Protein: Amidase family protein
Amino acid sequence: MELWQLPATEIAAGIRTREISAAEVMESCLARIEAVNPALNALVEVRPEAALADARQADAAVAAGAELGPLHGVPVSTKINTAQRSRLTSHGLSAMAGATADGDDACVSALRAAGAVFLGRSNAPAFSMRWFSSNDPHGRTLNPWSAAHTPGGSSGGAAAGVAAGMTPIGQGNDIAGSVRYPAACCGLVGIRPTVGLVSNWAPPGDMELEGPLTFQAWSVHGPLTRTVADARTALYAMAGADLRDPFGIPAVHRAAPAEGPIRVGLVRDVGLAKPHPSVEDALDTAAGWLAAAGYEVEELELPLLAEAARLWSLLLCEDLRPMVPGMRELGDEATRINLTHCFEAAAELWGAEPGITAYIQGWARRATLITRLQELLGTSTILLTPVSAEPPFEQDADIIDPERARSLFAAQWPMTSVPVLGFPAVSVPTGVAGGLPSAVQLIGGRFAEDLILNAAQAIEDRAPRLGGDLWS
Structure:
């Protein structure tokens, strides 16, 4: 097995024990990038000399007996909408094609402190506002499984890079599924943590520092990885108490182990989009595996999630409304079409201009939904849902026509409902259907990351290993 094929946890352990060196791992990943990135376009900035120099410094720290973090020497990619000092931070915009960051976002600082070695910057759509990953300055990222289908978005470059073996960990962020959906499209594990667990603090000058309330209250950073163990390690490496974040928590919260059996509520459909047969199969398969692992699985009707998905359209679109002229001016043609379709879909639910009263009432209703879902889940119940009602979308499905775009928004209810509520959720692969990865989503109560990761591990232990057929 090549070093680039190893999971992050094995790489970190090998470097710690000096069985392998960080420089050797980096050279292996760089060779893999050279071999496959020209076709996939997952990473849009790679600086080999700097990455190798950082890896050699990691080896020197091992030799010196320094205290090592959980990701010491592990290559990690970061997203072009996340500030990493002196690195490309274009947000997928031609007007910012050469922009670099003056400092690190808090999640990048946390990865740096954990010993991660930054290898490249991953692609994303303009403004990170689509479930696809193409833009004018950097081009289109392809799904390693199928060039005709999206790698997901907005963290599609991170997902394609990890799935193809360029890095074992990709940093992403999620306000409408932008970690979980790309992970599912590319056969990976992707976790969206509870709001506040991973700091959203950004250095002065970052374009999202004073973003609208939905961005502040819903957007989170999380890892995309090939294994659940890697996702857990990367997540807690990124987590940290940071009260500079308005939604930050004073300490890293890890829920106590639940007493007794864990209940799983299987939610297939909330009335917004009929699940595709392959999605139904993935749910049935995952439910069977969880039952075999000792979980108590029962079907559950939960219209609360449909209501949360509808609130996503109201609150996000109303927050974006004042920004739309600037986004249309700076964004590419796909951004302009997607914005039009997004607002048209929201208008069908809320009217063309819902107004301030509907907006205020929407935020008030959100609080009620959060309380009701937490009461349902408690400390020993999780939800099993689709990732999407459809398999991975065909490329540019959101800009084909308004009708197709509306079907996408409906299908993505599992992606949009969760950010509104701020709960943790993880996407985990279940196999392959029709030549594309299949996956399910697990949702837990607030700060129940370990609970859903344990369930994801039970699924991973029984699922076929993906990736080997991508690595020939």
